[in-house]
## 1
Amino acid sequence: MGIETAAVIGAGAMGHGIAEVLARQCPTVWLHDSSAEVREAAAGRIAASVARLRRHDLISKETARRIPDRIRVTGDLPEATSTAHFVVEAVSENLPLKQELFGTIDGYAPEEAIFATNTSSLRIADVMARVSERRRSHLVGSHFFLPAQIVPLVEVSRTADTDAGVFDRVVALWEACDKEPIRIERDISGYVANRLQRALMGEALALLAEGTASAEDIDRSITQGFGLRFVVRGPLAQRDVAGLDLSAAMRYDDGGRERIDAGRQHLLDLAAAGNLGLKTGRGLLDWAGKDLDSTVADDDEALAETVARMLHRRRLGP
């Protein structure tokens, strides 16, 4: 059975993108936010996003036309969830907030509704702690990457109680929405991709703290180097292509856990000093004179173009 009505709770940068994705497939998508300001901005953000996706041929003309018509923005939580067959939470990464939200939605949503969390770091069982026992088989994780409407990946995770059929339905839903879901069979914090990112970030911060290279050059080692290969082949496949004998022979003096801790401390020191990155003009890099919204929009444009080229290459085949 297809999912006719969906609800996304949280209409910010992540939520409105998830609503756009669902509207590719679901006739009715409720987009809820408690903030009137966020709700008022939602229509404009969706329109701009849909135009970008269409500009890069990531959606068809017909899909671009119907997405805004299918999304209904509301500040009324019962209205958003009382008829929803699928509810996705996309509020801030605050465990008590998420727990309270799902406990409330539990009293509104239909008995058969599937609950999904977009948490990037928390365990599903913890997020859903206040959901009633009768729904335990209908709880999943659906973790997107910003911007949700452009980046293909969705990490679909389950708990020990999640029904196999429910898990399959969620994977099938995201596939029908033209996303690239991966299955995560254990309820672990950080899923798969964020754990990989954390390992990379830990080493990058350690190299920076040690003065091995500048922040700009460390970034370029990825964007102009091995990061490009990840578009066509993941790290494990790359090891197979290079040969496991070569990989097994590689040795590094990594300096132990102390290096990673020192790198993280560098990050904490910057944050404590008020150097929070792009939004304050300074972080690990110098962002002086850069506007947050225009910089993010330019990056989204470049990302959409990259994804479009990747998909075009895939359609052409080997």
## 2
Amino acid sequence: MPSSDKAPSSAASPRGESGKAPARALLAWCFFDWANSGFPTVISTFVFAAYFAQAVAPDPVTGQAWWGHALSIAGLVVAAASPLLGAVADKAGARKPWLALFSAACILATALLWFVQPDPSAAIFALFLVTLASIAFELTMVFYNAMLPDLVPSRLIGRLSGWGWGLGYAGGLACLVLCLFVFVQAEPPPFGLDKASAEPVRAVAIVVALWFALFSLPLFLFVPDRKAAELGIGAAMRAGARELKATLGQLRAHANIARFLLASLLYLNGLQTLFAFGGIYAAGAFGMTPAEIIKFGIALNVTAGLGAFLFGFVDDLIGARPTIFIALAGVILPGTAILLVRDVGWFWGLSLVLGTFLGPAQAAGRSMMARLAPKGLETQLFGLYALAGKATNFLGPLVLSLATVATGSQRWGMATIVVFLAAGFAVLTTVSEPARSPRG
């Protein structure tokens, strides 16, 4: 991997002499998690995914399979694009322009979901928009995550990452509450929305788009960015592609990072597939209504947010690697039990236990990647980290959808998630965490 002392001066850290960004900037960075969490929570998992499976697709099993195919395509695109875009951004310097571009694309595609009628004829249109929005959402995370090492000393990375995830879950919770009480359960529905054509449910797409647009503004206003390099986009793309090729070629000399990327590739794929199909599974296997699914999502986000916040301190205390181990075990064990139960009460209880560990598994992975990344290559390596999280993400939904079709059972389809989580846990046992300086 190229030496960090060859990084361009234009990519210098925006931190001040104290080695950290102002408190206002840290809060604004965390608020981007609050802003964008409405999309995975409301659209991808609990509301629109269930609406698609129950009201748009011909039946829930077919809906789960089609949803899986759409996310597979999105995962392939992200896997191909994210490492190169990360390398380009490392050469171009500034991250905010990329964040703005992909945020706008996600917001627009999400807003257009309003036009998805409850009819199978609208399925292709819905899947196209969800695929586009998912791609844009994941690419924003490449540049957002890469800002993390520039904002705080390394000894506080786990804490800030956990706070971001915790605030993200709080944002997803707040957005769900708004959607439930103002739109889905409102009697009569606001703004003259027609329940017969599912307009109160479809309106959540507009809510999520406006939520993302409004609450992402603090990041663009208050978080310092690296200075833009003098390179043009074309030159940055060529330089970034060369450096990415060199980095990939030299990963063999950095076996520890390569093994962590492989572990992340497996367990993040399982987690992301779990998020994508949680609402669909609750609707199909337990017959939960849209309002019940939203209430379930609210409860799950409370436990997940608390877990992410509290485990940020655990991460800084014992390290990212053991934190990930604890979190994965906390997902695998109750997750396996959920597939065996038939009672909705047990489903609720086990899901809330599982939810406590969802945020820590992701937040600790982000903090470990930040600690592993050499200076000057953070965005590029977070592009590879996004690749690790997405390279097989097309496989997760694909395997799930194939298993669902082959068995005619949503439970057997969901069981494939456990395999990815357990494989990631096994590979992580071969990874070592870098020593932390007491000064950061």
## 3
Amino acid sequence: MGRRLAYVIGAVVMAAGVAMVPAAGISAIYREWDDALWILVAAGITVAAGYIGWRVVGRQGIVTTKEGFATVGLAWFALAFFGTLPYLLTGSIGNLTDAFFETASGFTTTGASILPDPSVLSHGMLFWRSLTQWLGGMGIIVLSLAILPVLGVGGVQLAKAESPGPEPDRLTPRFRDTAKRLWYVYAGITLIEVIFLVFGEMDLFQAINHAFTTMSTGGFSTEAGSVGAFGLYTQWVIIMFMFMAGASFALHYRALTRPGIYFKNTEFLLYSTMAAGAVVIIGGGIWGETEFAQTLTDAVFTSLTLITTTGFGTADFGQWDSGLQIFIVGLMFLGGMAGSTAGGIKTYRIGVLTKAASADLRRLVHPRGVFITRFGKDVVPDPIVESVQSFFLFFMFLFMTGTFVMGFIASTLPGAELDLVTSASAVASALGNIGPGLGEVGPASNYFGIPWPGKWLLSFLMMAGRLEIFPVLLLFTRELWRRS
């Protein structure tokens, strides 16, 4: 088992090292020679370490379901570790804790940052920062499955463990072909967004970075003021593409030949309804604070950036009415569709939980009745219902435990001042892969002031949230490592 894990993890780490090379090229284009050199050194170290795991230590073989979960869980922590090297070697971030936090936030598409002003980074480092989100959005292991035939054996087990949703949606019998098509759609929509953005205030470099972090629902920006630093045209372009990123990419692929499929998909209709409802509530809450165009933009933008867990900002919702802030925390738990790049619980699970709860209520009134859980016209099998309920239980357990631990850290470390709002929203934001929270980690602030143990805790929660909890928690169970 160990050598098969090393084989896959090594290949994925090596792919991450190759992905650093374009960042070095960007630094070279802008004559940032020192950063270009150190990013290349980081790439060389990462490729070498990955090659050792892949070719020297590793051994090819069929990846079982159990090994798939172990591989994905360990691979993402390895990616975050090696992803710190460009930050550390260039001096962009001076310590391992902050560098790991920023990298984990990137690959998990969380968007929480310890940088007060990202524009101080070199162009190459800004590009690497955005690229980590773009690679993490669809999943770097899914990308590896698409481009490396040697990882195709047992590939569906890896994809099942990494995919952002209850089950990976297979477009073709071979999952390698499915992975390719998903990445084609992902890259294609990203390119279209770049074209739209360059017609606004953004230059090409800004457009590429923001397209990367929009389609990945990541939320890293090149500006301290996030998307609020740009005009209404740019904000509405990003609104449109955030909405697309929060929908299933398999659905986008099918819509290329059948556009009407959007309106026949129950999950898409629920996702759209939740977004529209959030816009109405937030819009009503901030009505009259600014002129109509900006109020409408802030209501739509904030609703989508939270539901899709993108984390961009145009308004400081930390300054809004307390009732709206409670509603905002609720939005942090939702997430987009299964098969999108969004984090959170996901629309599908919200729908199934609601239907299952309704069936349980009717079962109390009619104990001998037979009630079937349906989502739209589809019957949801009992094992899926139980899996969704289990996921929700673990999600809330991690939220409550994480909030308690953050409070404990604040009460025991000298100089650490984290109130309940900051602690709870930071944990919700990390677990839901959102980015900004409330209090000291609100949209106008950053995570620099979080104590170092809190940053490691939040990094762990980011990983758990991105990998749908189970692959990370399973790493701490005996059953995963016990020989069959």
